């Protein structure tokens, strides 16, 4: 079994909690209150600014040029492609454009600083594991929703289609491959740190959606 499969098995109870949480359940049914989705979009746009820079920084640390280029592309995708989708959502859902500069609320602040500190101070293998849940969990949740939703006019269908789509899936598979290769080459001690980082980031994914549902602020 690959390292990423083992890590995914480790967080299965948490992933089930994610699928059961009100934010995901109501997003799937198209009944998520607009104010909660607006809060999520505002914070996610801020998160992606930082996440994109973390990915690009990690690319600069990769000794393999192909891996470096892929992580630069991952960062570009977070900063440009997904940001453009959010800007279209801002118009569609009546979110002021200047709200993209809103303060980082507690969970978003915690998450981005966890990723930044991990990328800066821990081995690259650990940083690779830390950024992976944002790839994998979004893909899994997108696939779950697309396979179980029954409402054709779901107002959040563009968000769902983005993360269940083939283009995003290609990036996920590349990221999984790089993490598995890194895990194979490193030590048991580093693999333990990798798993700790992966679990922490997975918890932050849950907390991020939960904070949006409850509109958690400072």
Automatic annotation (TrEMBL):
Membrane-spanning residues = none
Q: Which residues form the Thiaminase-2/PQQC domain?
A: 8-214
Q: Gene3D superfamilies, from UniProt? A: Heme oxygenase-like
| CDD domains found in the cross-reference section | TenA_C-like
UniProt superkingdom = Bacteria
Show the PANTHER family listed in the entry: BIFUNCTIONAL TH2 PROTEIN (PTHR43198), SI:CH1073-67J19.1-RELATED (PTHR43198:SF2)
Protein name, entry field: TenA family protein
The species is Sphingobacterium tabacisoli
């Amino acid at each position: 079994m690959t390292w990423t499969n083992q890590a995914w098995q480790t967080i299965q109870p948490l992933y089930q909690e994610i699928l059961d949480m009100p934010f995901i359940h109501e997003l799937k049914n198209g009944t998520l209150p607009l104010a909660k989705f607006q809060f999520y979009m505002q914070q996610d746009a801020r998160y992606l600014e930082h996440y994109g820079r973390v990915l690009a920084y990690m690319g600069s640390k990769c000794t393999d040029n192909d891996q470096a280029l892929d992580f630069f592309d991952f960062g570009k995708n977070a900063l440009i492609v997904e940001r453009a989708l959010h800007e279209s959502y801002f118009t569609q859902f009546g979110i002021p454009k200047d709200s993209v500069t809103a303060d980082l609320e507690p969970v978003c602040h915690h998450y981005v600083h966890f990723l930044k500190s991990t990328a800066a101070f821990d081995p690259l293998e650990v940083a690779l594991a830390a950024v992976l849940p944002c790839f994998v969990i979004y893909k899994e949740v997108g696939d779950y929703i697309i396979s179980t939703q029954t409402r054709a006019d779901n107002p959040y269908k563009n968000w769902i289609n983005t993360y269940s789509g083939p283009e995003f899936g290609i990036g996920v598979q590349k990221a999984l491959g790089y993490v598995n290769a890194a895990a194979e080459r490193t030590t048991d001690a580093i693999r333990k740190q990798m798993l700790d980082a992966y679990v922490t980031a997975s918890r932050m994914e849950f907390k991020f959606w939960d904070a949006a549902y409850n509109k958690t602020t400072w």
